[in-house]
Amino acid sequence: MSGLALRNVSKRFGDTPVLDDVSLEIGADELLVVLGPSGCGKSTLLRAIAGLETIDEGQILIDGVRVDRLAPGKRGVAMVFQSYALYPHMSVRENMAFGLINIGTARAEIDRRIAQAAKMLEMEHLLGRRPSELSGGQRQRVAIGRAIVKEPKVFMFDEPLSNLDAALRSRTRQEIAGLHRRIRTAMIFVTHDQTEAMSLADRIVVMNQRRIEQIGTPLEIYASPATEFVATFVGSPAMNILPVAQATADGAFLRVALGDGTQLETSLPASAIKDGALRLGLRPEAVRLCAPGAGDTNATVEFVEFLGDKTHVHLALSRGDRVVALAAAPCTARPGDETGLVLDAAAGHLFGSDGRNLKAAPA
Ligand SMILES: Nc1ncnc2c1ncn2[C@@H]1O[C@H](COP(=O)(O)OP(=O)(O)OP(=O)(O)O)[C@@H](O)[C@H]1O
Ligand SMILES: [Mg+2]
Questions:
Q1: pTM for the complete prediction?
Q2: Which residue from 6, 44, 143, 270 lies 20 to 30 Å from 68 (Cα-Cα)?
Q3: Average pLDDT of the chain?
């Protein structure tokens, strides 16, 4: 197959495992985003693919050929680092040419590739400058240009936008999406920023503590999270998680009771009932304010965040559980108000004591 495949890859630094049985496939023109918290192993994964780290177990294949024993320069991958890692004493042109000279590419070919990449990235006027004479965004472009000229089969970005301000981040994100449309190579983009992941990815790989939690399109990750970790890591404000005091299977659908006695019907069949503690996950859009007494339960407004086009209302239920509701922009709720709450459990998720979503297929 063309593209990149990882099969059961594991890696340790000394006694510390950093990648645990990681398997994934990336199509030859797919943009895959690896999303996960700091320290979960994202950079190590990229470095292993690039050949900057060895792996202890498993296989890495590019276009069906095993590369995990090949030197980095022979794998057909290029990587853009968060720090850009440009050579300070070289001009932009020399920075871009350096890797190609090292592998013996002909001068005319190097010039052609640099001219093409510089045009694509609109940085022809910067080729004679040194990195110290560039802005952060421009350095970032040079780092991307240096990767493009290698004409890699797999293009990897390790948090390339974290040093940029919010506006430049958003613009560069669009440029990377545009670049992917033009060069149609397999791309892996690592980030811990869920907005970046959702907006760029064909598919997202969510990692947590050395392992892959879920692989899916942005919509699948958001609407059908496989685990409580994925459910709460993606989405802002985070999904509300409420402990279930009791689950009953007396009708067609599984019913749950919250700590304050509130009874809710889920969309899960009664047969899905599971031993052990359950937790109900409700996105803020599944929690709505209504008149006191008119909803599933009542709550006290703790604070209100007005965000222009919408309002987040933070609430306390009678037994101390807290939830955030998404409300329309001009919202009249005030701290201290008693309000009714509709909890749309049918749109929610139930997580078992193993953290898995009862709606998701078994792992
Ligand atoms: N050379 C190394 N020697 C020992 N441990 C390492 C080494 N490099 C990374 N680690 C550890 O491996 C784990 C994964 O690190 P990695 O850099 O892959 O995380 P990350 O997901 O990229 O995090 P971040 O989002 O902060 O960049 C961390 O616990 C880190 O401390
Ligand atoms: Mg990292």
A1: 0.91
A2: 143
A3: 92
